[in-house]
Every structure is written in structure tokens, then in C-alpha cells.
Amino acid sequence: MSASRFSEQPSYFTNCEKAQAADARKLLRSQVAATDRSVVYNFDMQTAHSSLSVNPYLLIKLVRDGGSIPAVTVRAPVKGESMRVTKITRAAEPEIFTTLLIHSQTNTLSLANFTPEETARLAQIGVLLRPEEVSSPVWFLCDVNDPPLDLVPPRARQTMGSVLEVSDLVVNPTLQHLGAEGPTPAMRGHVELSNVFHPDRFWITIDNPVTGTPCLYSYSEEIAEEVNALQPGRPIPKIVSPKNREWLFKVGVIESASEAARLRDRCRRERVTAGNTLRHDRYVILPHMLAPLQLAAIRRYYRAVIAEGFLPFGDEEWPNRYFSGRDPIAYFYHEQLTGLISELAGERVKASFCFFASYYPGSTLPAHRDREQCEWALSLPIDQSPEAETSSWPLYLQPPGSDRATPVFTGVGDGTLYYGREVGHHRAALTTEKYCSFWFMFYVPESFAGSLD
Predict the structure, then answer these.
(1) What tens digit of pLDDT does each residue of 344-395 get?
(2) Is residue 313 part of a domain?
(3) pTM of the model
């Protein structure tokens, strides 16, 4: 992927409606592709009759058997549902199979050629949709002057002081300006994925002094001059208005120099303790691992991705979960947390793979140990319903030498880091929560030479 996001994906908000629609389709197709490394075919949008039109965001995978293609798999996002995943075989449905195969190669789909029966079948599998079923693009953003306060979990809510109470204000010394292009490809991880960071925003990063973890914030053109004037570790420029000064203080872009120094010192000491615990016990709990507003923005993103129908629900192995194995936001934070994992592990590590999953009642995790790509495993709950201080769906951990597994109860935003190849782990059936959503992130020694998948 080019270092410039706009060389591949033009601005979503332009004066040209055609370019706007094309860019939205590109984002949507990339979000569908994030769940499966298949070929995306862009069918032309045509009107079927008074209500149906072709789903413009289909993903079709050709199923090959030697030199033949006996089937195709259709993955169709449907707004308000899970993604519809359907295997169409040549033997069972020759007409539908041939139609999809031919038009996947020609990039056109003429609805006038369908019989009423074929139309009904194509609507059933999501190839044809009613207007209200067509998905909308989902972008990630966390605006400094309009953060998603309502999605901060109750357990992570803090009493925010006022900038008027602080006499030693400075710009957070870890501030980095990323500009309109947003996080660079290198920041987004070693897997080339779509860029879902909102293109109508500018971007900055800071490290939160309490958690020591990275925070990514966005801001609009409206306040760009003020935010762009901020320099790390320097006094606050006079150009910054009192209103925006207050917001920037609340999100941690500007801070009290003395208080932040105290918090960073405490964070360093807590990391030393956590690292010692990890290496001795082979696992450690990392309370409130993500800053509250980052967690809120992450929750908003995944709720929207599910609501717009971009994730499939269930398969033969995991029938009760939404899943995304190639999620751009997960891979971004996966990469950004590498420094923290290295510090806790006591050696330099690199990110291997990660995924997002949202589990529903009936889900279980059989007892197992992980493979070689999972030397260090991070289980990080990012959402659940209903809200609670801690989840009642514990992760059971059994380090080497232990005669039984210990249940670990954590809340949203608490990480559990453990040696995945050594520590046996499982979960009993989920019965209480409506759903529990997680990131699972894995790391290996920097010298690891095998596949990272």
C-alpha cells in the first residue's frame, strides 16, 4: 500500500458525488474482504424492479478442485444482519452458479436476465437487496473536541478536572502529528489492510501517562490551525481557544507537567512489577490497559461494523460469534502495543497475528495451548452487554506445574497477558452476558523466523 492514503483511496468527502460513491464502495468492499482473503468483484449497480438492486459490496470466492471450479462462495453484507455466507455448487444450482461465475469475471450483472425464481434465490443469499438492506461505510474516528463519552464503560469513567485548575500546562511530550494521511502503513501493522481511518480528519497520537498505551485522536479542519500549532513538551500556544484548550486537556493532548510526570513514574513502576509477575507466574492481569476514550471509540467502531452487516456470525467450529481475522483497527493497535509487550516480556518482540471476535450465549473455549506464533498471548475484552465491573465469563489459566486452572475475572479494557504455548487456557459456556467482545493479539520473539499467520 502506498504511503499516501489518497493515492489509493481518494477523499470520501469531495465535491464529486461519483467519486464519493466510488470511494464508499471501495471502503465497504475492503471491510468485507477483512473477514476473508478472497477476491472482491465489483458488480455494477442496476435496478431489478421497484425494490431490489444488486448488492455492490459482494465478495465471491471461487472454490477450486484441481483445474475445475465446482462451487463459489458468496459473502454478502446486509445492513441490520450478519453477513450472509452461501456456498453455491455447480451440481445443485447450475443456473445460479453459472450466472455468478460468468458475471464475477465480467464485472456486470444484468438483472433483466433472471427468472422470478432466480431473483428470489439471489435475494435470499444477499446478491439482491432492498434499499434499506444496503450497508453504509464504517470509519474509525475519535475527535478531540467530540469524543464518544457515552461509550466509555462505567468502570472506566473518571472525574475529569478542568484546565482552569492547572498552572503548569504543557503539550504532551509524546505528541506526534500524523496529518491528513493518518497512521502510516508501518503503524497499521505488517499485514496490508484497508485504511479505515476517517479521511475527512487530521490525526495525532499521544501516549496516555496513566496506562502508558498509545492513543489516536482525530480532529476536523475547523480546529486544525489550533491543533497543528501544538508542539510536544512546549507551552500551549495562544492561538488555542479556551474551549478547545479544555477539550485537549480532557483527552490528554495537553497536561499538567508535574501531575503527568508523577503518573508516568507510577506507570513505569507498575510495568516493572507486571513484567516480574508475568515471567514468574507466566501470566499477568493489566487493569485498565486502554485509555477510556480510546476504548469508547473502539467500541463504537465494532458496534457499527456489526450493525452494518460486515461480519459473519457463526461457522461449524464457532457457531455463536461474530469474527474478523483481518481487521484494520485490531492490527493497528496490535502493532502499537508491541513496545509495551516487549517491556513486560523483558525482550524485544514483534506482532504475529490478531483477530476480533464477539461471543454470544453458548460459546465455549475448549482447553488448549497455543501454537508457535503465540509465544505471548493477549486477551483484551473491549465490549460486553450488560455493562459490569467485571465479566462473569472468566478465562481459566493453568500455568506449567499447576494442578488446576485458575479463573481470571476481568472487566472491559483489562488485558490478560500470558505465555500462550505454556499456559493451558479455556472458558466454560457463556450463559450470562448477551455478548462479550474481545481482541486476541499474539506476539513472538523478534528473532522468530516462521510464518506470522
Answers:
(1) 999 999 999 999 999 999 999 999 999 999 999 999 999 999 999 999 899 9
(2) yes
(3) 0.88
320 plus 404 within the same structural domain: yes
Both 363 and 303 in one domain: the answer is yes
Q: Is there a domain that residue 66 lies in? A: yes
The whole-number average pLDDT for the span 301-326 is 94
SS3 content of the chain, % helix, strand, coil (to 5): 30, 25, 45
Residue 45 clears pLDDT 60, i.e. is over it? no
Residues 275-299 pLDDT 10s: 999 999 999 999 999 999 999 999 9
Do 26 and 105 belong to one domain?
A: yes
Residues 116 and 202 in one domain: no
The verdict on 428 and 298 lying in the same domain is yes
> Does the CA dihedral 117-123-127-131 come out positive or negative?
positive
Torsion of CA 353, 312, 46, 26, to 10 degrees: -20
In a domain, 30, yes or no: yes
Indicate whether 275 and 417 sit together in one domain. Answer: yes
Sign of the CA dihedral with 83 first, then 88, 94, and 99 last? positive
Whether residue 2 contacts residue 11, with contact meaning beta carbons closer than 8 Å, is answered with: no
Residue (of 61, 56, 58, 57) closest to 37 by Cα position: 61
Give CA–CA dist 395/405, Å, rounded.
9
Distance from C-alpha of 137 to C-alpha of 135, rounded to nearest angstrom:
7
Closest alpha carbon to 96 in 60, 47, 64: 60
Contact assessment for residue 378 and residue 442, using Cβ atoms and an 8 Å cutoff = yes
Q: What angle do CA 407, 409, 410 make, to 5 degrees?
A: 145
Q: Is residue 144 part of a domain?
A: no
Amino acid at 330: A
**Residues paired with 284 in a beta bridge:** 417
| Kind of pairing between the strands at 349-359 and 214-219 | unpaired
Residues 6+ apart with CB under 8 A from 418: 278, 282, 283, 284, 376, 377, 379, 397, 399, 425
Report yes or no: 415 and 382 within 8 Å, Cβ to Cβ: no
Residues 15 and 51 in one domain: yes
Range of the domain at 424: 265-445
C-alpha cell at 260: 503527568
C-beta atoms surrounding 323 within 10 Å = 17
